[in-house]
């Protein structure tokens, strides 16, 4: 049975061609990882700040934050990238690499903000009132009561957002970046090796997403068992 599988595999995919294209895919793979890492890291940080602004309803900033979230969540990433790369070119020149990072950050921070906010509001008022009666400051309440519990409750949503944003990077090629999807299209267009190109694309994303998915599942288990 394994022999039949090997024969079928060789008939469907050209192994020599795949090996010859590996350097090109490797470069695109690390570019996608780099943009995802920076974009998601900034999105988490900015999302946390926005969530605090919304949760504490900080004057002036609260309204701006709500507008930001609505615009970010209700416009596709491709439009945001076009605006950053082509629209802003009249006023300021930004490289396509940083446009991609800013785009992922802009989109992701709104989703992260909502995840953090839902974690914040899930904390019972009685806990906050008890902490205030003990003389704890707002910063201490945030640090010792709100954050440890809210991050545990928000973690599944945050992890889902991370996976979502990594997959969203598949369109950054529209601003001239040689990411995984762009390289795949280029190989198909130049060589006509559709099966081989799609196989490498699927494997590349699975190499990133599957370990992250298992890691996030373990983190959720750990936080629920040892933090809550």
TrEMBL record:
The keyword Cytoplasm does not apply. The chain crosses the membrane at residues 35-56, 77-94, 141-166, 197-219. It is a multi-pass membrane protein. Pfam families: BPD_transp_1. InterPro entries: AA_ABC_transptr_permease_3TM, ArtM/GltK/GlnP/TcyL/YhdX-like, MetI-like, MetI-like_sf. Residues 29-220 form the ABC transmembrane type-1 domain. It is found in: Cell inner membrane; Cell membrane. GO terms for cellular component: ATP-binding cassette (ABC) transporter complex. Belongs to the binding-protein-dependent transport system permease family. HisMQ subfamily. This is Polar amino acid ABC transporter permease. It comes from Helicobacter didelphidarum.
């Amino acid at each position: 049975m394994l022999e039949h599988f090997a024969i079928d595999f060789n008939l469907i995919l050209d192994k020599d061609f795949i090996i010859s294209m590996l350097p090109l895919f490797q470069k695109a793979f690390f570019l996608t990882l780099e943009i995802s890492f920076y974009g998601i890291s900034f999105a988490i940080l900015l999302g946390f700040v926005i969530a605090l602004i919304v949760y504490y309803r900080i004057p002036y900033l609260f309204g701006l934050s709500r507008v930001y979230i609505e615009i970010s969540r209700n416009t596709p990433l491709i439009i945001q990238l076009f605006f950053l790369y082509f629209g802003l070119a009249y006023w300021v020149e930004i490289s396509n690499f940083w446009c991609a990072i800013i785009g992922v950050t802009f989109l992701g921070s709104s989703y992260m903000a909502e995840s953090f906010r839902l974690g914040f509001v899930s904390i019972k008022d009685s806990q906050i009132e008890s902490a205030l009666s003990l003389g704890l400051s707002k910063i201490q309440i945030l640090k010792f009561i709100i954050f440890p519990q809210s991050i545990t409750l928000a973690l599944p949503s945050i992890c889902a957002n991370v996976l979502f944003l990594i997959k969203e990077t598949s369109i950054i090629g529209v601003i001239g970046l040689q990411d995984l999807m762009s390289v795949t299209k280029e190989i198909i267009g130049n060589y006509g090796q559709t099966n081989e190109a799609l196989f490498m694309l699927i494997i590349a994303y699975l190499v990133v997403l599957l370990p992250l998915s298992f890691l996030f599942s373990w983190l959720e288990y750990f936080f629920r068992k040892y933090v809550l």
